[in-house]
Write a structure and sequence with these properties.
The protein has 72 residues and is mainly alpha-helical. The chain has a domain at 21-61. The protein is built from two helices and no strands. The protein is elongated. The protein starts with 21 loop residues before the first helix and ends in an 11-residue tail after the last helix.
Length: 72
């Protein structure tokens, strides 16, 4: 339509983030690079898988940092 308001333009439009599909990125990381990203609380995992992941993480990276108690 002629004379209709135009959408605002910005030189920063190219840096506006696009929402990422995290599961797709994890899948691509595994398929393309052999990198596995897993949350130990993923509901798709059973107890044995969670324990195995925790064991591997401790072996490779050490114990998790202790969480500070919240005072509030």
């Amino acid at each position: 339509m002629i004379g209709a308001p135009r959408e605002p333009r910005s030189s920063l439009a190219r840096v506006i983030p696009v929402r990422m599909d995290v599961e797709q990125e994890k899948r691509k990381g595994w398929q393309n690079h052999g990198i596995l990203v897993v949350a130990t609380n993923d509901p798709r995992l059973g107890w044995p898988e969670r324990e195995m992941i925790n064991h591997l993480a401790k072996k490779l990276f050490g114990q998790k940092a202790a969480k500070e108690a919240s005072h509030g």
